[in-house]
Every structure is written in structure tokens, then in C-alpha cells.
Specification:
It is a single chain. The chain is α/β, with parallel strands linked by helices. The chain has two domains: 182 residues, Rossmann fold (3-Layer(aba) Sandwich); 46 residues, N-terminal domain of TfIIb, CATH 2.20.25. The chain is 24% helix and 33% strand. It has seven helices and eleven strands. Strands 3-2-1-4-5-11-10 form a seven-stranded mixed β-sheet, sandwiched between helices. The protein has a four-stranded antiparallel β-sheet with strand order 6-7-8-9. The protein is globular.
């Protein structure tokens, strides 16, 4: 997408992110699971945004570092109650500017890895995440499971264009405009936010990977799959799961405890 870079999504969505996405997945179960895996060790969240997960994780007493490419997102995180407990770092999640620091958990939540639309960047992100794991540390990755042929049409024949209303009210209309291409595993889109004051464009662009592709990338980064759940509550992952929480660790380390 022309004119789209690592900071674009965060900069364009920061003012609505909490309203639109504040209730994503089960935050309470996620925080409990991640805190248990961290077991008191420092935690790094890549793509921390406005702190939906980082703030309650920090409230458990964990030392939390959050990396984001968007200054606007980090400013909103810092301004929230408890924001001082999260160390916000401005940088690219592919290779965060964290010197040689190590973490008990590196968290990449809710499809955040898919914001890296170059497969090589997804691979580099996992390599650098693995490098930042302390002994016994874990990479925890949450993402959707692409349906067969998705996100294109049912037969996976080619790109599919969609225009759908997201919000319709007396004072505001938000339209979702997207183009999906199963051949490249990419979806790009715009939320066209229309009010009497004018029009605001909120672009987004993802490249999805299947769980199997993620496992292959993780293996190339020196990681092995230790566990995979269908939800943060630990529900077993199966063929009909719409999402997955995948826990990776360095080869030869003990399995995670639930």
C-alpha cells in the first residue's frame, strides 16, 4: 500500500483504538495465562499499542516493556492510569532497540505479527524475539486461523473486494473497504470514517500466515512449539479453531506449566 509504513496503523488508529478494540479477546484470561508463563520475569510486548494488555500485566507486578512504532499509541499508553509502570519503547517490532536485554516472555498478541506484510520481516521478528528470550523464556503468539481459501472467496479463486458498514449513526458513518488476495495471503483496507466535520482515513494492511507456516518460521528461529491453545483459557486447539495461542520455546527446554 503506497504511503503505508510501520507507524501508519498506530498513528491513524490511536484516537479510536480503545473504543473500537478495547474488548478484544479475553483480556482477563490472557493476563492470567501470560503472567503465569512469565513467572515474575520481565515481559516484552511487541506492538504494545495503548496498553490493552501491558497495563494489566504490569499491575500484576511484572516488569513490562512495550515496543511500538507509533508515537501516538505510546503517548496514549503513558497517559493512562498506571502508564508509568510500562516502559514504552519507540521502535520497529522486527528488531526492537533493546540492546542485549532478555525477557521471560515475548508477547505478540492479536494478529500483531501479521502487520508485518513482508514474510522476511515476519521471519526476522521471530528470530530477534528468540534472541531476546532469557533461559527458559517463551514466545507467546496469538493469531487467527485462516479458513481454507480465506480471506478470499470460498473457492480461493482470486482477489475479493468488499465494502461493508462498520458504524451507522445519526452523526457518523464508518465504512470498511478491503481487498483480499489469497495468492499473496494479504488483506489491505481502509476504514472511511465520515462525520459532519469531514472524512478520516484509517488504513490497515496485513499478511496472514497459517499455524503451520508460523511453526516453520519459528523452527528457523531456533524455537519449537511447546503448546497451542484455541483460546487464552487453555481450550485445546483443534481443526475447527478460529484462533490460536501458540507458545514457543528454545529447543531442549522444559515444557511450559499451565
Amino acid at each position: 500500500m503506497d504511503g503505508y509504513d510501520a507507524a501508519t496503523y498506530g498513528d491513524r488508529f490511536a484516537d479510536v483504538y480503545d473504543d473500537w478494540y478495547g474488548q478484544l479477546t479475553d483480556t482477563e484470561a490472557c493476563v492470567a495465562a501470560v503472567a503465569r508463563l512469565a513467572d515474575g520475569a520481565p515481559l516484552l510486548e511487541l506492538g504494545v499499542g495503548t496498553g490493552r494488555l501491558a497495563l494489566p500485566l504490569a499491575a500484576t507486578g511484572l516488569p513490562v516493556v512495550g515496543v511500538d512504532a507509533s508515537t501516538a499509541m505510546l503517548k496514549r499508553l503513558a497517559a493512562k492510569p498506571g502508564g508509568e509502570r510500562v516502559e514504552g519503547v519507540l521502535g520497529d517490532m522486527v528488531d526492537p532497540p533493546l540492546a542485549e536485554r532478555r525477557f521471560g516472555v515475548v508477547l505478540v498478541a492479536y494478529n500483531t505479527l501479521f502487520n508485518l506484510v513482508d514474510p522476511a520481516d515476519q521471519q526476522r521478528c521471530l528470530v530477534n524475539a528468540a534472541r531476546r528470550l532469557a533461559p527458559g523464556g517463551r514466545l507467546v503468539l496469538e493469531a487467527f486461523v485462516p479458513a481454507p481459501g480465506a480471506p478470499g472467496d470460498a473457492a480461493g479463486r482470486g482477489p475479493v473486494d468488499r465494502v461493508e458498514p462498520r458504524t451507522v449513526s445519526a452523526d457518523r458513518v464508518v465504512l470498511s473497504v478491503s481487498r483480499s488476495d489469497p495468492a499473496t495471503q494479504e488483506v489491505l483496507g481502509q476504514y472511511v470514517d465520515i462525520t459532519e466535520q469531514g472524512i478520516r482515513l484509517r488504513p490497515w494492511h496485513i499478511r496472514w500466515s497459517t499455524p503451520e507456516q508460523l511453526d516453520t518460521m519459528a523452527a528457523a528461529a531456533g524455537l519449537v512449539l511447546a503448546d497451542r491453545w484455541a483460546s487464552w483459557s487453555g481450550e485445546p486447539f483443534g481443526p475447527d479453531a478460529a484462533a490460536h495461542v501458540s507458545i514457543y520455546e528454545r529447543a531442549g527446554t522444559p515444557p511450559p506449566t499451565r
